[in-house]
Design a protein that fits this description.
By secondary structure, the chain is of the alpha+beta class. The chain is built from four helices and four strands, in the order βαββαβαα. It has a domain of about 100 residues: Alpha-Beta Plaits.
């Protein structure tokens, strides 16, 4: 079964550019002879290492994206291990990550983004209930909003009868 891998390796800093190109070509032929495909080759240039590796503080970084089966990747790793100019390498399988990212993108595609949609105008506020006198009046062809609103008089609150004041009872 063919899977996608990223293979990053670091070449010694004292190796010239032509030799790095030869190394990349050799590793690419190893992958293709094993039945795989080299998707991309990215030469990232000379960078400082995080820590000293084989007495080197710098290295030339190269990233290969490879589609191959397990046996092809094992052969590539074996060749990286025995090649003198390569001071460090790392192989990572990325096909599961690609599947996960595709699933997330598909999920995001189904969602609606509310901020991207045009604003919907709010419905007009409902008109307060008018008194019966206004409802009974004939309404001409004038729109409802233009009809005069008659304010109903506010009824006074009924007075609360106060209890008769009683004299305090003396304490015994």
């Amino acid at each position: 079964m063919s899977r996608v891998y990223e293979v990053m390796f670091i070449v010694r800093p004292d190796v010239v550019e032509e030799e790095v190109d030869k190394l990349i070509a050799g590793f690419s032929t190893t992958v293709t002879n094993g039945g795989g495909v080299v998707k991309t080759v990215e030469k990232m240039g000379r960078r400082k290492l995080a820590y000293t590796v084989r007495k080197f503080n710098d290295g030339n970084y190269v990233l290969l994206t490879v589609e191959a089966d397990g046996a092809g990747v094992l052969e590539l790793e074996r060749r990286l291990r025995v090649t003198e100019p390569v001071i460090k390498f790392l192989t990572v399988r990325i096909d599961e990550e690609d599947k996960r990212l595709a699933k997330v993108k598909a999920l995001r595609g189904t969602r609606r983004k509310l901020s991207a949609e045009p604003a919907v105008q709010a419905a007009p506020a409902p008109v307060a209930a008018a008194p019966a006198a206004v409802v009974a009046a004939p309404v001409a062809a004038a729109p409802v909003a233009a009809a005069p609103v008659v304010a109903a008089p506010v009824a006074a609150a009924p007075a609360v009868a106060e209890a008769p004041a009683t004299e305090p009872v003396p304490a015994v």
